[in-house]
């Protein structure tokens, strides 16, 4: 299985970010895993913006990581069909892998769309 790379946009307090550019996102290939690399980035809370362009509802799953809250398990979120969007706020303590600093996402078969990631201040 191939791995697609997702980059995060760092948000700052009392500052703006070009929302059009920041929400373009990484294209979903449901056959691949998508990884958000947080190596060297201090990130406690993140927001994922998942857009579903496929004609049926689909599920995106954020895999459990290796830190203190990993015992809570993976998080599966349903995204509405065709033009559905979900903003998902996650804690790195639950989803980040200690071994390589990455967060892993997987998608229901057939899902199309995009994912954007934001590091919250």
List the main descriptive attributes of the protein structure presented here.
121 residues, mainly beta, Jelly Rolls, 5-stranded mixed beta sheet, globular
Sheet having the most strands: 5 strands, mixed
**Residues in β-strands, percent:** 35-45%
- CATH architectural label: Sandwich
Average pLDDT metric: 93
Query: How many individual helices?
Result: 2
Radius of gyration: 14 Å
The neighbouring-strand order within the major sheet is 1-4-9-6-7
User: What structural class results from the helix and strand content?
Assistant: mainly beta
Q: What is the CATH topology?
A: Jelly Rolls
Highest-level CATH class: Mainly Beta
Give the helices and strands as they follow along the chain: EEHEEEEEEHEE
């Amino acid at each position: 299985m191939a791995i697609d790379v997702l980059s995060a946009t760092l948000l700052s307090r009392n500052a703006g970010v070009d929302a059009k550019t920041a929400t373009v996102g990484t294209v979903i290939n449901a056959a691949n895993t998508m990884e958000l690399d947080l190596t060297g980035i201090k990130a406690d809370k993140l927001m994922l913006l998942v857009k579903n362009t496929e004609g049926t509802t689909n599920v995106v799953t954020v895999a459990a990581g290796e830190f203190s809250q990993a015992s809570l398990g993976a998080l599966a979120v349903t995204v509405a069909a065709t033009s559905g969007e979900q903003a998902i706020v996650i804690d790195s303590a639950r989803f980040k892998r200690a071994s390589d600093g990455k967060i892993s996402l997987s998608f229901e078969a057939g899902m199309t769309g995009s994912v954007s990631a934001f590091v919250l201040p």
